[in-house]
Amino acid sequence: MPAEPLHNDDTALLLRIAEGDEQAFASLFMAWATPLAAIAMRILKSEYARQEVVQEVFIKVWLNRDKLGKVEHLGAWLRKITINQSLLALQRHATSDKRLAELRLSQEELQEQANALELKETRRLVQEAIESLPQQRKNIYKLNRVEGKTTREIAEELQLSHGYVRNALSAALADIRDRLSTSGLLVLLVFVLY
Questions:
Q1: CB count in 10 Å sphere of residue 57
Q2: Is residue 81 a contact partner of residue 57, using CB atoms and an 8 Å limit?
Q3: Which of 60, 81, 180, 193 is surrounded by the fewest CB atoms within 10 Å?
Q4: Short-list 116, 123, 178, 118, CA closest to 145
């Protein structure tokens, strides 16, 4: 839009606003709020941000009303303020988004650290539970869970009955579960990790 020179009505309106005339200011608002809102909306693509920008524009006009006598092209001047305020709003929004992303990343890192510590503590408790098992159960458990051997392979290797090995493995798992439950960490998922 080309800059239009002030009409006598605009000049009189600005002079009245400069003198603190609130009715003149309301007239300016009524005449320009919608066109300025359209400009802000094209830039911001947000109804809420658009409303904020239009409010900021008119607040600036009111707070700087003593300088209104220097305005030569009212429409161009108001459009320029609106564009500048819209760009500032975009910049604030981008900064806010960046901070939010940084906070999310920081929160995720803290959660990962907490999870790692919790996993480490759980593994320690499982290891303590395994070490507290009677020697035969401990050997059977380790052969099954650490080395991945079947109960039949363990029975052959240790020259024990298959039923005994199955029962000993079940008892070992029950002992570990009991020990973890007294620690408040009955985490069956840990057995998958072990």
A1: 26
A2: yes
A3: 193
A4: 123
Q: What is the pLDDT tens value at each position of the chain, 194 positions in all?
A: 444 444 567 888 899 999 999 999 999 999 999 999 999 999 888 888 899 999 999 999 999 999 888 888 888 899 999 999 998 888 888 777 777 777 777 778 878 887 787 778 878 888 888 899 999 999 999 999 889 999 999 999 999 999 999 999 999 988 888 887 776 655 444 444 44
Q: Which CATH fold topology does 132-193 show?
A: Arc Repressor Mutant, subunit A (1.10.10)
> What is the residue type of 21?
D
Q: With contact defined as beta carbons under 8 Å apart, do 115 and 69 qualify?
A: no
71, 57, 66, 60: which is closest to 20 by C-alpha?
66
Burial of 157 (0-12, 13-18, 19+ CB in 10 A): middle
What would be the CATH architecture of the domain defined by 8-99? Orthogonal Bundle (1.10)
d(CA 56, CA 59): 5
Tokens at residue 160, please? 């024990």
The residue written with tokens 């298959």 in the block is 162
Domain spans, the chain: 8-99, 132-193
